[in-house]
Predict the structure.
Amino acid sequence: MSPRPRAIRGMHDILPSETPVWGHIEARLRALMEGYGYAEIRMPILEQTDLFKRSIGEVTDIVEKEMYSFQDRNGDGLTLRPEGTAGCVRACIEHGLLDRPQRLWYQGPMFRHERPQKGRYRQFHQFGVEAFGLPGPDIDLELILLSARLWRELGLQGLELQLNSLGRAEERAVYRERLVAYLQAHATDLDADSRRRLHSNPLRVLDSKNPALADILGGAPRLLDHLGGESRAHFDALCAGLDACGVSYRIEPRLVRGLDYYGLTVFEWVTDRLGAQGTVCAGGRYDGLVAQLGGRPTPAVGFALGLERLVALVREQGLEPPPAAPHLYLVAVGGAAQAQAPRIAESLRDRLPGLRLQVHCGGGGFKSQFKKADRSGAAHALILGEDELERGVAGLKPLRAEGEQIQVPLEDLPAWLRERILGR
Ligand code: ATP
Ligand code: MG
């Protein structure tokens, strides 16, 4: 016999026991976005490989070693999207959406061929927000405020905001030379990856996760000290806005982000409660990207949030929503009752929106149906037998609490359920 098929390493099924917490978070996100005036956009999961090379940058972890790229039957080079910003920008340019400011959000699976571990998967899900056409720190502030509101609404604790400015391209160029000089002076202590990037992408070295480099990198010159007046003013205004709104933050001069398109503001929300994979949400300003992908120069800022990590944090803090078990499980025994059950159930659903009613399927006697009713988690069993039908009533029996079975005339059932079960 051939082996049973298995999911691909690093790609996970989200099981029925897990989907309620996902749904809870997704519902919050959607409401939050409506509350701030953001519109949803949905992009394809596949894009031309070139799009990611041009946007994320050739010398980045993602493009160098993490992309799922292949040739399709026409020989086109395609890639399963590793993130959402590139596709979102591509879509906005393609559909001419950038002639005025846009506030957008999206959500969906992303793919990176990384070493799977807790909080790091090959298929994972991001919720992303992008705002186009707004150059000032006010929109940077808004993105941070709305993410802070999300943590509050979910009841989460222990997320720290880390903030930095990458300045403008000219400022980075000057800084880059100083950094290279510094790193060269310490070249013998760098690891292979960092030595290689020293010339191709030295800022990326600051992002190294290798603890052995912590001391060297800690002593490196700081980009924040190389900002020009405008960049400094942008950063200071953002900080002042955060102060005014009571959002605390830590300025983290080595925060550079793993993608090449960022400038000015960059930020991450980090927690120490998830082990090594502690960045839940990360983003920043990328004013150059739209033009780089062939659009008219358009300021832009965004962030992406790792949903697996957010789900893990919600669970770790015991903040899952209570299960939405059925209010009622309809037990119907005997041919006549079984024949009537669907019609009665449908009319209850018509009259009681929001009612969670599970109807027994598959026949069987009282004993076996009650077992299923119990297992469904339903609060009450709604019982139809020959006896009840003859008298025009239904039985109601509490399943989660003490209490006798009672009889309710069928015509009174909607009102009774509305009052006693839906509490309206
Ligand atoms: P990391 O430093 O953890 O690799 P990154 O800088 O590569 O993160 P981004 O590209 O900024 O991450 O993605 C934004 C968010 O998406 C991350 O902060 C994280 O929450 C989530 N994320 C990124 N890669 C993965 C992954 N492989 N598995 C699960 N979540 C991920
Ligand atoms: Mg990464």
